[in-house]
Design brief:
With 782 residues, the chain is mainly alpha-helical. Among the domains are: 215 residues, no CATH class; 101 residues, no CATH class. Helix content is 73%, strand content 0%. It starts with a helix and ends in a 12-residue tail after the last helix.
């Protein structure tokens, strides 16, 4: 029946509302609910659809359910009854009884039913038990008006479909019943045509398991339901993709919506968003073109239409559509990494916006422009400065705050003082609070977490992540226009998993990533973030356990997500396997990419590559060659305020000083950086530095110069080595535990502790059988 009216048979125009068996069920529920209120209250008003006739809990459930059922597409009676039963068993029984009575009585029951609806709205001299201007009252009025417009043949078809709707619920829909019902419906229409079997089956709503397989499963939407569906799914795709329909099912619903409402232009945009979440370029660009093509005014090109005002308005509308279409196309190309195509589309949008003096469009274009320019490492400070000032002048708080955050990120990468960076972010936070922009609040927190992590303050970074995640669970973030940015949330979850793994809690990190996978499925827009994090953690775990083949597989998986990170980890793996030449080649490629500001580079990656290059040089016994690389790394870290990486680079310098017979200088450096390492370092880094500190302590106190000091140093070193061994064991780096056991055995031998020496020797032998020296990397570095 829905398809019949929506397609406009018999010369009828396509209405926004039409009557279906599902809507008849809704009307029965409303009527029975209101009549019971009327009986118990004596014709009292039921404004807001909540009264004292029903239990308060039942009333709340009823109102929420009715709002959802009115807005959503039709469902089968078999699917509706369990939901009604959850509200009230009495209401469910009344619905079944009224439907069966309506079907058994005949077609006149429909007329009597809609007449009772009119009486309900107009009873008691205007004091009806259901308010005419309430949500349910307006829905009932629309249905009554739609019924009044039906012809007799259309009422007959509605009654026949209602019989099928009720018979399917009772399980009495046999092939004979279906043929009989189809024969009833195949009557002469207004234009002399007949309704075929295919048209009949298309009118039936989505069925339960009893429906034959040849019937379609797509839902049929009215225009209002379609608009609500599009708004709901678009909001979920932007806010939380895990709650939106899966891509294949969503596309099926979009196709059904386009078939039943071909003039609903927004379906193309929803299809564009669905393609974007799958990174499907061809489908995305086709749907974006279709969306703006349908939005353009058709106009009348006849010679009689010479109204200058009409033509001027049409030209303005076209210009408006064209420049925002170009802007959307630029965003699409930017998303797929097509920088040149994005710049061409963006320049076209800027040109048209300047011609039309559209400053708002210009500021949106500027937002994309500095993002594209920033990818090439160009100094965009002046561009951002002008953009922020102009958006503030035009009273565009969202773009102003977003511009400040982009300006903050750019300045942080340009080695500005951290205090100034967080001062800029504070201005953005103030704007976000003033204008209730929770999306940008979450973006700001994610940016603060990244900055603290870059500056080497892992505790502060974790605090920002936890604050962001706690925001996502608050009720106010899901109502109104307030929402949490999904990308920021995915970044926070991934960062928490990474920090848990650094502390040796690998299983907890995997559980967190499993949550991220359920929240952001693999085909979702931001799945790349947690997928990269997962592969990095698996790679590190494989390296710690000396499983080189598995680590190689992880490198290949990382290459699909980040080429520069894959090169760096491949260089690390080559160094662990003793392939010095291959490792040096890869590291030089990474350093060149970072120096030239190629895609994927970062200051942290540059510093880590220099440190790893120094480690490879040390393993080749080129300690003097490694020193310039470490000093370059230190200069880079101090320039960009990378406190933790600077401390680790200092530890490498101390290790070289130990090898060059300068343990006192190494000890002095280690004492300066130990607070930073212990406060913010991973378990493995802490253990490495503790092992180095123990070696320096032993080298600084010889038995010839100071026997008592030597014994104290030995006892202190044993305790520190025990802590290092425990840390290596926590992160499953057992081949490093073997070196600790070897050193401890020598110390116990010198102290004369025979039993302790034998325990260490036995532990060493067990580990050596499991991790032979020929298969693990040499420990000539930190």
């Amino acid at each position: 029946m829905e398809l019949l009216y929506n397609q406009g048979f018999g010369g009828m125009t396509r209405p926004k509302e039409w009557i279906t068996p599902h809507k008849v069920s809704m009307l029965i529920l409303i009527l029975e609910y209101a009549e019971k209120e009327k009986k118990k209250k004596g014709a009292a008003s039921v404004t807001a659809e909540i009264g004292e006739g029903w239990d308060l809990k039942v009333s709340r459930k009823f109102c929420r359910a009715m709002l959802s059922w009115i807005q959503m597409p039709d469902v089968e009676l078999l699917q509706l009854l369990p939901k009604v039963r959850d509200i009230s068993e009495e209401l469910c029984q009344i619905l079944i009884k009224r439907l069966h009575g309506m079907v058994s009585t005949g077609i006149s029951s429909l007329a009597n039913f809609f007449q009772s609806l009119e009486q309900l709205l107009d009873s008691n001299n205007g004091e009806a038990s259901l308010h005419r201007h309430s949500i349910l009252g307006m829905f009932m009025r629309r249905m009554v008006l739609s019924y009044d417009k039906l012809s007799f043949s259309q009422v007959s078809k509605l009654y026949a479909i209602l019989k099928l709707y009720v018979k399917e619920e009772s399980g009495r829909l046999t092939e004979a019943n279906r043929s009989e019902a189809m024969a009833d419906i195949s009557m002469v229409m207004d234009d002399g045509g007949t309704m075929t079997k295919e048209e009949l089956e298309a009118t039936l709503p989505e069925c339960a398991e009893e429906r034959p397989k040849e019937l379609p499963a797509e839902k049929v939407f009215t225009r209002r339901q379609g608009e609500f569906f599009i708004a709901q799914q678009a909001s979920l795709l932007e806010k939380d993709e895990s709650k939106a329909l899966p891509p294949d099912i969503l596309q099926q619903q979009i196709n059904a919506l386009q078939e039943s409402n071909p003039d609903l232009t927004e379906t193309h945009y929803l299809s564009y968003l669905n393609c974007m979440r799958l990174s499907e370029f061809c489908g995305a660009i086709h749907n974006l073109h279709s969306y703006f093509d349908h939005l353009l005014p058709k106009g009348d090109n006849s010679k009689d239409n010479k109204d200058s005002n009409h033509n001027t308005a049409e030209q303005k509308t076209k210009s408006y559509r064209y420049r925002y279409a170009a802007l959307g196309l630029a965003g699409l190309h930017c998303r797929f990494g097509h920088r040149e195509n994005a710049l061409h589309a963006l320049k076209e949008a800027i040109k048209m916006a300047q011609e039309a003096s559209d400053h708002v469009c210009l500021q949106h274009a500027m937002g994309w422009l500095y993002r594209l320019e920033d990818k090439e490492g160009i100094d965009i400070s002046s561009l951002l400065d002008r953009s922020v000032a102009k958006t503030e002048e035009l009273n565009l708080p969202y773009l102003t705050s977003l511009g400040i955050q982009s300006f903050t990120r750019h300045k942080a990468l340009q080695s500005i003082q951290p205090a100034m960076v967080f001062e800029y972010l504070a201005k953005s936070d103030a704007l976000n609070c003033q204008h209730n922009q929770s999306q940008l609040v979450s973006t700001s927190l994610a940016q603060q977490s990244a900055l603290w992590q870059m500056y080497g303050q892992s505790t502060m970074s974790s605090l920002c992540d936890q604050l962001l995640l706690s925001m996502s669970s608050l009720e106010f973030s899901t109502v109104g226009h307030s929402r949490i940015d999904s990308e920021a949330m995915c970044l926070a979850v991934s960062n928490q998993a990474r920090q848990l793994a650094d502390q040796g809690r690998v299983q907890a990190a995997k559980d967190v990533l499993l949550f991220a996978e359920t929240k952001f499925p693999k085909m979702s827009q931001h799945a790349k973030i947690w997928m990269l994090c997962k592969q990095q953690l698996l790679f590190q775990q494989a390296v710690n356990q000396a499983r080189w083949q598995q680590a190689e597989q992880m490198v290949l998986s990382i290459a699909a997500l980040s080429s520069i990170d894959s090169k760096f980890r491949n260089a690390l793996l080559s160094r662990m396997k003793g392939e010095t030449t291959q490792s040096l080649k890869l590291l030089h490629d990474v350093i060149d990419q970072c120096t030239n500001h190629k895609e994927g580079w970062s200051t942290e990656m540059h510093a880590r590559a220099l440190m790893l290059l120094a480690e490879v040089q040390c393993e080749s016994s080129n300690h003097m060659t490694a020193i310039p690389h470490l000093f370059e790394c230190l200069a880079l870290c101090h320039k960009h305020h990378l406190t933790y990486l600077a401390a680790m680079a200092t530890a490498h310098v101390a290790h070289i000083q130990l090898i060059l017979k300068m343990p006192h200088h190494g000890m002095s450096l280690l004492k300066k950086i130990m607070p930073v390492i212990l406060a913010n370092g991973s378990v493995q880094d802490k253990s490495r530095v503790q092992l180095l500190l123990a070696k320096c302590q032993l080298a600084c106190h010889t038995s010839k110069q100071d026997p008592e000091g030597r014994k104290t140093a030995l006892l202190s070193a044993v305790q520190m080595l025990s802590q290092a061994a425990e840390g290596f064991h926590t992160v499953e780096t057992e081949y490093r535990v073997k070196d600790v056991m070897y050193l401890q055995a020598h110390i116990y031998q010198e102290l004369g502790y025979t039993s302790e020496r034998n325990k260490c020797a036995m532990h060493f032998r067990q580990l050596d059988q499991q991790y032979p020296t020929a298969l693990v990397p040499p420990m000539s570095t930190l």
